[in-house]
Specification:
Layout: H1 2-6, E1 30-39, E2 45-54, E3 57-66, E4 71-75, E5 82-89, E6 101-107, E7 118-123, E8 126-130, H2 143-164, H3 196-204, H4 206-212, E9 216-219, E10 228-233, E11 255-261, H5 268-286, E12 290-296, H6 299-309, E13 314-321, H7 340-343, H8 349-354, E14 362-367, H9 374-377, H10 380-385, E15 388-392, H11 403-412
Parallel strand pairs: 1-7, 1-8, 10-11, 10-12, 12-13, 13-14, 14-15
Antiparallel strand pairs: 1-4, 2-3, 2-5, 5-6, 6-8, 9-11
Helix pairs in contact: 3-4, 5-6
Amino acid sequence: MKLFFAGLTVSLFLVSCSLQDRELAPPVSGPSVAGMITGGSGKGKLYAVLYELDNKKYRPVVDQLVGKNGRFEFPIASNNIFGVAAFEDLNGNLRQDRGEYAGYVRFPKVKLLPAGKAGLVLRRNVALRKRTKKVASPIVLSEEAAGEVARRDRQQLSSSLAKTTAPKKKPAAPAPKAAPPVQRDIVNLGDARFSLASAATGFRDASSFQKKSGSGLYLVDPYRANKLPVIFIHGVGGAAQDWRNLFPQLDLARVQPLVYQYPTGMSLESATSQLIDFAGVTSKRYRFRDVQVVGLGTGGLIAKAFAQRSRSVRVTSLVTLGTPWGGLKVPTGKVQRGHVSWGLRSNSPFLKQSRRPFSGPHHLLFAYADARALPSQLDPRVQEAAARVLGFPTDVRGLARSSAAAELVRGALGKR
């Protein structure tokens, strides 16, 4: 244990955990290691780090912020020996210091299966205990954090030396190179903030959701410049977890999924404006211009409005799943400004704008299992402007779980 913690490397980029929900859809390939973190004080954030034994040295592979339930899971792509280190960050400096709780567990070798077959899930828990001795090489979660820690250490050392020795004139040393920025926006869709339970709070009280979980445009795996950025937008009452069945069926070697998480009780106008701002920041950070957008249910309305209004990025293709272009029946007297229901009135300005075409191709998918929801999905004005209109024997939420619908989405996202 001591040897392991003494030899940890301090540079590590944050990446996504497994996209598959093993209760709803089996993983595409490969085994994974999983477990639960126990112990600690409960006052700091929990982080888990996956290490691989490579040439007799432990090499960091991925890390993740663990939710309050303490559960972690990492997909693995080799038959090497893996271990998971975890710690509780009490002071928020993204590294494990003396006095903080930490632990480690080692996983045995596993046999990789051919692509497309599900692998085993190896489960072991990590028990945290308080580390009272100074750590030679603490666990650090990113190069940005490592650079910041090194900068603080240099400042503390210079301050202590200045108190004991007289200052000497020295030629100015060149400024140290700043560590490359690492944006901590890669998420695990299994996190509680992306769950349907969290979504229910977001529909009832958008303000409370924003304070507790916050909105954002998140990557689900590390960004690659050779991939096509695609923004996925869930609908009313939904959450980013709605896409977990669809992602494994896409060509993730070419598609770079980004999920837009927001409280679905907020107005459609606010949700669209917020997405435009997030997309502008994200596109500038990763230096991309063209995106494609997929919207589920009312998320399709936001996707269409975003495609029409965005200036920082250009939407080259739009896919909507079960979107109510004709609006929904809203009880008279219960419509409030600032709530999503305000924009879902059949004559609302937002809906009128969203029914207008945009410059790129629009692939319109609808669900006809629920006859009551069908007419709103098939507004003739939107159908006429669509490049493709296809129906599926399921409900609106089921379109995100349908293999047939996933095949069409995969084809629609095949070109830039």
